[in-house]
Each structure stands twice: as structure tokens, then as C-alpha cells.
Amino acid sequence: MIAILDYGLGNIKAFANIYRELNVPFTIATDRDTLLAADRIILPGVGHFDHAMQRLNGSGMRDALDEAVMGQRKPVLGVCVGMQMLARSSEEGGESGLGWIDGAVARIRFPSGTGRGLLPHMGWSSISVSSDVQLLQGLDEALGFYFLHSYRFICDDPTDVIAMADYATPFHCAVRRGNVYGVQFHPEKSHHNGVRLLKNFAEA
């Protein structure tokens, strides 16, 4: 059973629709008991880092999430801002992140002399997979995924990086440490690749 964590942010219905089409059992978790009963967890997120952390901390599920992921070692997939929340902190605000993967979140900056690029990074971008983890198996890397973000995750340990993308500069677009996974892109908006990734997570 996959729990899609509903703390007031993220494309909950889109994830639910994909898992319904795949006939993968899922639930939408709005309380700690539902969350702790699940085998795997999706942590969605959109918008501002501080707002997302404040919503999660105020949801009544933060302690249960820590217990499920860090205590019981259940697989978790952070998506977009949900991935950024896995870090220690973000330049976007002053709240502490979950700190499950060593790293911090910084604003996308364009190299000097290249002109001023547009933010957010919005649209489809190819990816380069650098790991054989099951989450990223069977994907069309050239087609890539749909992105919408102005900030990027910077891992302290390069072995935690499982895929890269490029906008302004190359950046870490997918990360993994043990049972903790994160993707900067939106699989729920990425058609075949997104469906395959979410199916992979259900089977990882």
C-alpha cells in the first residue's frame, strides 16, 4: 500500500489517478495512523519551501513520517518541493528541512557572461541517469520529464545523486540515500516516463 501524503500541498489527485490506472493499491494519508500503516510513501510538494515545511510540521503527521522513514525504513519518494524538503535547508527560507539526505537547496543561477535566463525552469528537459536503481529503469532519458522550479538540490555526497538534468548549469534532478528517494521533476505530469517511474517506485 502506497500512502500519498496529503498535508495540503501537491498534486494528490494526479498521483492517485495514475496508481488507480495501474491497479496499485494506494491511500491518501491525512492522519498518522494511515501513514504508519502504509508500505511506501509519496511526499509531494509545490510552492515555497518554508510554506511546505510549515504545513507538514503543522499537519500532525511529521513525527509519524519520521518514524516511518527513519525508524521503520519505509521507502519514501519526495517530488519537486517534496524532494527539496529532504535537504537540511533552503535559500528560499529559514525553516529546517527534514535532513534525510545531506545537502542544501539553492536558487538556480546562470553563469556570468551567459545572459540572464528565465526562471522558473518550466517545461520538459532530458535527464542523464547515473545509477542503476530500479526507480529509474525503463525511462526515455532523451524525452525526460516535466520540470517547474527555481531552486535546485545540491547533494553533499555525489554518490547520493542518481540522475542529472541541465538548466543554466547541470543540476541534481534525482537523489537517493537508502530508502529515501527524491525527484525534482513532476512524474505525475510526465506521461509515459512518469507512469513508469511511479510504477517502479511501487515495486522498488
From TrEMBL:
It comes from the Bacteria. It is found in: Cytoplasm. Residues 4-201 form the Glutamine amidotransferase domain. Pfam families: GATase. It catalyses: 5-[(5-phospho-1-deoxy-D-ribulos-1-ylimino)methylamino]-1-(5-phospho-beta-D-ribosyl)imidazole-4-carboxamide + L-glutamine = D-erythro-1-(imidazol-4-yl)glycerol 3-phosphate + 5-amino-1-(5-phospho-beta-D-ribosyl)imidazole-4-carboxamide + L-glutamate + H(+); L-glutamine + H2O = L-glutamate + NH4(+). GO terms for cellular component: cytoplasm. SUPFAM superfamilies: Class I glutamine amidotransferase-like (SSF52317). Its main location: cytoplasm. This is Imidazole glycerol phosphate synthase subunit HisH. The active site is at C80 (nucleophile), H186, E188. InterPro entries: Class_I_gatase-like, GATASE, Imidazole-glycPsynth_HisH. GO terms for biological process: L-histidine biosynthetic process. Coiled coil: none annotated. Heterodimer of HisH and HisF. Pathway: Amino-acid biosynthesis; L-histidine biosynthesis; L-histidine from 5-phospho-alpha-D-ribose 1-diphosphate: step 5/9. Keywords: Amino-acid biosynthesis, Cytoplasm, Glutamine amidotransferase, Histidine biosynthesis, Hydrolase, Lyase. IGPS catalyzes the conversion of PRFAR and glutamine to IGP, AICAR and glutamate. The HisH subunit catalyzes the hydrolysis of glutamine to glutamate and ammonia as part of the synthesis of IGP and AICAR. The resulting ammonia molecule is channeled to the active site of HisF. One of its GO terms (molecular function) is lyase activity. It comes from Sphingomonas panacisoli. Its EC number is 4.3.2.10, 3.5.1.2. The keyword Lyase applies.
